[in-house]
């Protein structure tokens, strides 16, 4: 029986909240029933043509030569730089430009010779024609797997460098391969819901399609107008030129805190006005990266997501944190408002090594004699909102998506799903990926993971039951988290949840607090990442089997190269990551590993049972209930008042997730994000509606490209050689709020701070 097609988020109403419908403004996400077989999402209609050229070659000799070569180079660069003092990062947009130039060079230089493989019927052309958009996209996907974080290698670093324990080559290979691959298997279970459904539109993927079109389309430019490629280049040049100012000549404008300039000697004002270590009132950063790198890009996120992000930020930064701090909840006045490090009761940084023996076993008596572990009030609420985001996402999914998801799952099993979406119709000409391919990945990786636990369990400190639990947890959450990311662009990690669970179930084992989250995070990250890239291929009409092959091959190649590089560095560089033992000026300082000892000993050693037990931070568990209550109230209100369409625009998962971005994101990043969002959505988008529809993604991609190229050149030209800019008061990165880190409890002493 044919079921009625409905938007998966908005039940029986016209407004689609994922499309940025705002309060009192004309919503852009209404379903277009007058245009048959077209996408119901306006941004998709504007950026992605409903056409396809199935004659374009995709898996060409250029793909198989350039792809593995660039993937290997990028993987080596990424892994080497992860140990160095200055981290070398090449963005995806930079890789796209590099591969475009090399691909076109090969297309113009190589002869169209047909090469036959002896003993087979296989043959290929050295030059199958012009370098095309589909080929370019596959090449970028394969190459840029080298940029992706391989979490399991971080676990190996911790075992060998932080704890000086041995881990064999085979244990390392199995750990890396199983954690990298199993997420791809789980992704196959949710393709029909998270890819084929046109309402799962992935706001962060659409600009990538627009960028490829700007680079490849040769549509005639209207008289008096700029082409998409020209917009990209102009914006890239402008941002590149400007970025030199805040990153080389005047770093102080990376965080301008006006209140601190006026009241230089007030601790309270500095706590209120500091953009990095305070509440950020009146703070702003004057560069593109600060506005987009931490919270998101306001030019491409839906208005609905931006409004809910604002609500979440105000709730945590200007309601929860200041009220709790000035009420001295959790003895918060003894510590800085914003800090990620743990503290003891005296206000000093917690010396975790005092409560552990040489065998890394927790010493209960030493802990009782020393001090309980304390955290800053901002970090308290970051954890709280993370808890709320987890239960809120699941509740939101069950209430707003449960019925449709179940129906689509049943239809996919019966091969009855029909979307009426033009992009799905165009993809029907290509062979789909057989489901058994995904099941094979799951079964084989589970078997290899169990073998690793049985043979090398002492090295990785992960029993078989914990390994299976680390797979069950993300497999349950992939669908709700995937829906949130596919409709809003909001991303939620599972590190805190995995730390909490394994800390309770298997306490006192610091290495386990690395291996268990590695599986949880990797499985979730690669599953949703696979689905997002698959949607990219869906929009660009790339054959699904070609996408699958490239994704799997790229992941295997990049993880193998990174593991080999890591193993060589760890065994070749003496005293790597040990700053006190390294020669003066050595670059092998491993800055990303420095906080790991505190993290693993805190969660895996001291453990959540002590941190969140009686007398600790047990009150944070109420945030789990808040996560359930928020979406439930919205759902009930929407059913009680079906004509109040704005009610459905309230998305508590986005509210909670945006609040949990705090640390590493700081208030100055939020305010810069909101300032740019206001300038664009309230001014530019209204004044230049036509331009927005044509070129907003081109402008955004251009600015990202300019910022990325500056980062690469700055690192190569100045970072490696340690060349500094001109020395003057504006050159140093300083927001001039030195008192923002001061405690305000009576009698607590901190260097360069007044004693109250």
UniProtKB/TrEMBL annotation:
<keyword id="KW-0813">Transport</keyword>
<feature type="transmembrane region" description="Helical">
    <location>
        <begin position="227"/>
        <end position="249"/>
    </location>
</feature>
<feature type="transmembrane region" description="Helical">
    <location>
        <begin position="61"/>
        <end position="80"/>
    </location>
</feature>
<comment type="similarity">
    <text>Belongs to the oligopeptide OPT transporter (TC 2.A.67.1) family.</text>
</comment>
<keyword id="KW-0812">Transmembrane</keyword>
<feature type="transmembrane region" description="Helical">
    <location>
        <begin position="620"/>
        <end position="638"/>
    </location>
</feature>
<feature type="transmembrane region" description="Helical">
    <location>
        <begin position="304"/>
        <end position="327"/>
    </location>
</feature>
<dbReference type="InterPro" id="IPR004813">
    <property type="entry name" value="OPT"/>
</dbReference>
<dbReference type="InterPro" id="IPR004648">
    <property type="entry name" value="Oligpept_transpt"/>
</dbReference>
<keyword id="KW-0472">Membrane</keyword>
<feature type="transmembrane region" description="Helical">
    <location>
        <begin position="548"/>
        <end position="570"/>
    </location>
</feature>
<feature type="transmembrane region" description="Helical">
    <location>
        <begin position="464"/>
        <end position="483"/>
    </location>
</feature>
<feature type="region of interest" description="Disordered">
    <location>
        <begin position="1"/>
        <end position="38"/>
    </location>
</feature>
<keyword id="KW-1133">Transmembrane helix</keyword>
<dbReference type="GO" id="GO:0015833">
    <property type="term" value="P:peptide transport"/>
</dbReference>
<feature type="transmembrane region" description="Helical">
    <location>
        <begin position="137"/>
        <end position="159"/>
    </location>
</feature>
<feature type="transmembrane region" description="Helical">
    <location>
        <begin position="668"/>
        <end position="684"/>
    </location>
</feature>
<feature type="transmembrane region" description="Helical">
    <location>
        <begin position="166"/>
        <end position="187"/>
    </location>
</feature>
<protein>
    <recommendedName>
        <fullName>Oligopeptide transporter</fullName>
    </recommendedName>
</protein>
<feature type="transmembrane region" description="Helical">
    <location>
        <begin position="199"/>
        <end position="215"/>
    </location>
</feature>
<dbReference type="Pfam" id="PF03169">
    <property type="entry name" value="OPT"/>
</dbReference>
<feature type="transmembrane region" description="Helical">
    <location>
        <begin position="436"/>
        <end position="457"/>
    </location>
</feature>
<feature type="transmembrane region" description="Helical">
    <location>
        <begin position="489"/>
        <end position="506"/>
    </location>
</feature>
<feature type="compositionally biased region" description="Basic and acidic residues">
    <location>
        <begin position="1"/>
        <end position="35"/>
    </location>
</feature>
<keyword id="KW-0653">Protein transport</keyword>
<keyword id="KW-0571">Peptide transport</keyword>
<feature type="transmembrane region" description="Helical">
    <location>
        <begin position="645"/>
        <end position="662"/>
    </location>
</feature>
<dbReference type="GO" id="GO:0016020">
    <property type="term" value="C:membrane"/>
</dbReference>
<dbReference type="GO" id="GO:0015031">
    <property type="term" value="P:protein transport"/>
</dbReference>
<feature type="transmembrane region" description="Helical">
    <location>
        <begin position="92"/>
        <end position="117"/>
    </location>
</feature>
<feature type="transmembrane region" description="Helical">
    <location>
        <begin position="373"/>
        <end position="399"/>
    </location>
</feature>
């Amino acid at each position: 029986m044919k079921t009625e097609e409905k938007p998966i988020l908005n039940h029986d109403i016209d407004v689609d909240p994922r499309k940025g419908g705002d309060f009192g403004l004309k919503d852009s996400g209404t379903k277009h029933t007058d245009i048959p077989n077209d996408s119901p999402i306006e941004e998709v209609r504007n950026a992605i043509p409903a056409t396809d050229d199935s004659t374009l070659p995709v898996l060409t000799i250029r793909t198989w030569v350039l792809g593995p070569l660039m993937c290997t180079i990028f993987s080596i660069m990424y892994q080497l730089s992860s140990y160095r003092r200055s981290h070398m990062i090449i963005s995806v947009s930079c890789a796209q430009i590099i591969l475009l130039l090399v691909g076109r060079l090969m297309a113009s230089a190589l002869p169209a010779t047909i090469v036959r493989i002896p003993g087979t019927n296989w043959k290929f052309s050295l030059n199958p024609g012009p370098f095309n958009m589909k080929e370019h996209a596959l090449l970028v996907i394969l190459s840029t797997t080298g940029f992706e974080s391989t979490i399991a290698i971080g676990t190996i670093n911790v075992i060998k460098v932080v704890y000086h324990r041995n881990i064999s080559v085979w244990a390392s290979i199995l750990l890396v391969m199983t954690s990298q691959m199993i997420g791809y298997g789980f992704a196959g279970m949710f393709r029909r819901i998270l890819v084929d459904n046109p309402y799962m539109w992935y706001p962060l993927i659409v600009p990538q399609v627009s960028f490829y079109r700007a680079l490849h389309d040769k549509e005639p430019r209207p008289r008096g107008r700029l082409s998409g490629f020209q917009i990209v280049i102009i914006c890239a040049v402008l941002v590149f030129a400007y970025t030199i100012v805040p990153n080389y000549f005047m770093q102080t404008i990376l965080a301008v805190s006006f209140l601190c300039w006026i009241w230089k000697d007030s601790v309270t004002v500095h706590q209120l006005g500091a953009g990095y270590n305070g509440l950020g009132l009146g703070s702003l950063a004057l560069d593109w990266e600060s506005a987009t790198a931490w919270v998101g890009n306001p030019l491409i996120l839906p208005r609905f997501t931006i409004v809910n992000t604002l609500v979440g930020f105000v709730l945590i930064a200007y309601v929860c944190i200041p009220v709790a701090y000035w009420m001295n909840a959790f003895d918060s006045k003894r510590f800085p408002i914003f800090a990620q490090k743990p503290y003891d009761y005296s206000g000093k940084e917690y010396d975790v090594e005092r409560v552990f023996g040489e065998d890394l076993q927790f010493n209960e008596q030493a802990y009782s004699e020393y001090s309980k572990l304390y955290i800053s009030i901002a970090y308290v609420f970051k954890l709280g909102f993370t808890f709320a985001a987890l239960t809120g996402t699941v509740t939101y999914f069950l209430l707003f998506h449960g019925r449709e998801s179940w129906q689509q799952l049943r239809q996919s099993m019966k091969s009855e799903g029909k979307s009426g979406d033009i992009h799905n119709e165009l993809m029907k000409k290509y062979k789909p990926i057989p489901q058994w391919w995904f099941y094979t990945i799951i079964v084989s990786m589970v078997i290899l993971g169990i073998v690793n636990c049985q043979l090398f369990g002492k090295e990785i400190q992960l029993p078989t039951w914990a390994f299976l639990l680390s797979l069950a947890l993300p497999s349950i959450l992939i669908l709700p988290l995937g829906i949130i990311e596919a409709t809003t662009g909001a991303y939620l990690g599972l590190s805190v949840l995995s730390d909490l669970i394994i800390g309770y179930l298997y306490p006192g084992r610091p290495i386990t607090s690395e291996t268990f989250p590695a599986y949880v995070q990797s499985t979730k990250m690669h599953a949703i990442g696979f689905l997002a890239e698959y949607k990219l291929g869906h929009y660009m009409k790339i054959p699904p089997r070609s996408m699958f092959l490239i994704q799997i091959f790229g992941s295997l190649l990049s993880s193998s190269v990174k593991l080999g590089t890591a193993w060589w560095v760890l065994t070749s560089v003496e005293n790597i990551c040990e700053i006190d033992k390294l020669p003066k000026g050595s670059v092998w300082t491993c800055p990303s590993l420095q906080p790991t000892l505190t993290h693993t000993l805190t969660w895996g050693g001291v453990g959540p049972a002590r941190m969140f037990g009686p007398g600790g931070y047990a009150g944070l568990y109420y945030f789990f209930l808040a996560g359930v209550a928020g979406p439930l109230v919205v759902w009930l209100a929407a059913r009680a008042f079906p004509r109040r369409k704005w009610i459905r625009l309230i998305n508590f998962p986005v509210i909670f997730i945006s609040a949990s971005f705090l640390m590493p994101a700081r208030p100055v990043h939020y305010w810069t994000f909101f300032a740019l969002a206001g300038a664009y959505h309230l001014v530019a988008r209204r004044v230049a509606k036509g331009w927005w529809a044509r070129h907003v993604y081109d402008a955004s991609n251009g600015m990202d490209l300019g910022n990325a190229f500056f980062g690469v050149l700055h690192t190569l030209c100045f970072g490696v050689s340690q060349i500094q800019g001109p020395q003057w008061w504006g050159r140093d990165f300083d927001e001039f709020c030195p008192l923002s880190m001061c405690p305000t409890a009576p009698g607590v002493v901190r260097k360069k701070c007044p004693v109250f």
